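Lab notebook: predicted structure, single chain.

Context: the supervisor wants predicted structures on file for every construct in the current expression panel, including those that have not yet been purified. This is the next one on the list. No modifications to the sequence; it matches the entry in the shared construct table.
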Amino acid sequence: MSNVLISGAPPARTAGGLSATLVLALGTFAVGTDAFVVAGFLPSMAGDLRVSPATAGQSITVFAAAYALLSPALATLLARLPRRTLLVAALTTLGLANLGSALAPDMAALLASRVLAAAGAAAYTPNAGAVSAALVRPELRARALAVVIGGLTVATALGVPLGNAASHWLGWRAALGLVAGLCLLVAAVLRAVMPRVAGNARVPLRTRLAVLRRPAVLTVLPLTVLGMGASYTAYAYSVPVLDAVGVGEGSVPPVLFLYGLGAVIGNLAAGWATDRWGSPAVLTAGYAVLAAALGALAWLAAARTGAVPTVGPLVLLWGAGSWCQTPPQQHRLIAAAPQEAPLVVSLNSSAIYAGIGLGTVLGGATLDSGAAVVYGLGAAIAAAALLFLRWSVRR
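Prediction complete. Output recorded below exactly as produced.
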């Protein structure tokens, strides 16, 4: 916790830097809870706002699209701010935006608050990842990134099921109010315990985006979009599509917990495995697992069969396949552009949320055709991600 980034000097990189990233992971847990919790109470929110579930799902799309667009811009505008100040301000913005979402009287107000929430999330997550990578030796970088991204995956394991349960007992507005309180609480903790970390030199956005001319970077980012799009085609509408495979409303929280548990296991295992065997091997296994799990769920939905003991392990594999890709993808980008690590991590975060937005749009467009189509589309996109990976590795 004593490591400090001094402007113009590299940070002390030690194995102990991994422990410092745990504080950053608290913040990504808050961000992840906000980003993913809506999927757990989408039908009730849609009913209260008098819109269809597919329309309500566009609140996820708007959040994801705003995040994808704002992330590189905010990385430039806020470059000089001390990192602790930036991270605390970002979480505070996220908390206030969630209060706005909880009080939204209609869909338009909800969408506006989700854009503000995306700004807070876009300012936090990439900087947390970049700081974590700077605090450790290069051979531990993937594990440090996995710890920070682990906050997002733990949010899928705990935040989303708890949000679903809270909305069931207290209503979706109270659930968002609790998320707001979590964000503000973690902001206070970060302010108290994080070390001082200097900002970076401000570089024009056009100069920053020149990194996109590098073929190695251009082949990584589309893969992130495909991988997250595959998962979120069904996940954004998890309540209705799980119902189609025999998971009733009362069983949704524990099944979503299994998704999150798989996400945690997949993310942490991917960080370790990437340091040991490299990114392509980890990504190949992850996309194969994701395609197989979603394909099996599509078959169960088409057969109109399934039960929690059968579906649960498939959902766990779904979560593992979805979230094992982030550490190796970030590792590939930092290796391709080590001098622009904060930027490429920011661009990867944009690609993650672009994929979430893409998946949400595709899932909403096919939801009326049935859960089998939604799951099947996700499986097809995961297979496309695997093919794209193998093509890019050969290049």
